[in-house]
Amino acid sequence: MPFSADAWARNEAAYETIRTMPFNAELADGRLSRERFVHYIVQDAHYLIGFGRALALAAAKARDPDRIVHFARAAESAIVVERSLHGSFFEEWGIDAKAFAAIPVQPSAHHYVSYLTATAFAEPYEVVLAALLPCFWIYAEVGRDIHQRAGADNPYRAWIDTYAGEEFHAAVARMIAATDEAAAQASPALLARMHEAYTAATRLEYLFWDGAWRLERWPV
């Protein structure tokens, strides 16, 4: 069994919890409050900076030149292409660069970014890919599921269409292939570390969505 199929099966219950959690249920039916969506988008924009750094480090650790290019381009996409989507919402809501910079990274986003960057710096290439994969894959599957349930007049249609789109799913397929490629040569001990990283990142995906639902703030 490829690593990706095994990892998905081991964490399928967690994915189902994410898919059906209140934030995504209300996002799908268009009832999600503007306050919660704004909180999510701002934190996601902060997150993408750290995610881009982790992808760049994956590029630096890749042994194959094609994978170096792959992850370097993915880092660029995370920061430039996806942030342009956030920027369109920011413009609509009157959030300029100064206002965005003044909003702190909240606990769950801070934890997730710190985990990914620490993993990218300290762990082998194979483990880095396993930690990065859930963000790609879970977003794609949640986006596709929401797209199937959302009405044409959903106020968050631009977000829904981006993560349900074929271009994003093609990027996910490339990430799955790269991770399976790396895992194919991994020792049993290294595979175990890859599974630990995949599960940790999946749990952090849940915490990120839940933090947006709770309008998470630092308690002190």
From TrEMBL:
Its EC number is 3.5.99.2. This is Aminopyrimidine aminohydrolase. Keywords: Hydrolase, Thiamine biosynthesis. Pfam families: TENA_THI-4. Belongs to the TenA family. InterPro entries: Haem_Oase-like_multi-hlx (IPR016084), Thiaminase-2/PQQC (IPR004305), Thiaminase_II (IPR027574), Thiamine_Salvage_TenA (IPR050967). Pathway: Cofactor biosynthesis; thiamine diphosphate biosynthesis. The lineage of its organism: Bacteria, Pseudomonadati, Pseudomonadota, Alphaproteobacteria, Hyphomicrobiales.
